[in-house]
Amino acid sequence: MPGPARTAVLRDAIGLGVAVGLYGVAFGAAADAAGLDPWQALAMSLLMFTGASQFALVGVLGAGGGGAAAIGSALLLGTRNTVYGVRLAPLLAPRGLLRRLGMAHWVIDETTALAVAAPDRGLARLGFLAGGATIFAVWNATTLVGALGAGALGETAQAALDAVVPAAFLALLWPRLRAGADEPAVARRVALGGAVVALALTPFVPPGVQVVAAVVAVVLAGRPREAT
Amino acid sequence: MSSGALWTVVLVGSAGCYLLKLAGLSVPAAWVERPWVTRLVTFVPAALLAALVAVQALSSGQDLVVDGRLAGLAVAAAALALRAPFIVVLVLAGATGALVHVLVG
After folding, report:
1. Per the CB < 8 Å rule, is A88 touching B25?
2. Which of A2, A58, A164, B32 gives A34 a disulfide partner, CB atoms 3.0 to 4.6 angstroms apart?
3. What would the pLDDT profile of B35-65 be if each residue is shown by its tens digit?
């Protein structure tokens, strides 16, 4: 495979790995705020390894929600990895059950973006594996840093952390609403609907349930457009 | 929630998320690549993430409260609109939350 293209794919993979490290610190701190100990926070980054679901699970627990609502919101956000897997399967063409089981663990937003953007199948595989390895290493290390660091914070720093958690969710949401995303106007409508449903239900349902219930706002997306 | 219950939530949630990933690499593409399935999967994150933003910024248990978190969120939105990097967004939100805490108590 050509050298420059290979270098570009590796550079993108490593760049993404470093960028997610910042989210890792924020996740570790959010997990601590939700009452998880550092080992539980690290176990999530090792085993769940999909950022939005991890944030959702600790977000629901942090809001006082029960285990079922926390797991439910993580799984609902995890469904997009299923679609990514379908897109990746022909590119990665994992040979054998073990390779498939291993590769499945790294099917996330970032590795999908790297693999789909690569110019050929060999480079797609390289981008997926290099991105997966870097992101996995950095994400877990920084999760531990965030979880251990947050435990040592005083009261004012806790108030700061309380304000960081919703901002982190907004930063995850923002790219989906911005011009250039998939139908940003529809995404904005659905997002606004989700927020309204969640706030309206908050006084009446156990904490966390309103987050899962907000999924009904997806009806605001309407029917799929006809293929043209 | 006890530590044991938290471990159960962590492990069950992780197993479920892994199976969702594995399913994508394993099931026939035709099962998933239907227009309404892709539409749901594209827009479900917007609804859930927005709900989490709202709940994290405005709720305390079953009460709706306005405090430094909302001020931090407004500053974060402004920073995101100006295309600030992630770390800057979080630091500004955190500093705003801390400032309101110090001022209002």
Report:
1. yes
2. A58
3. 888 888 889 889 999 999 999 999 988 899 9
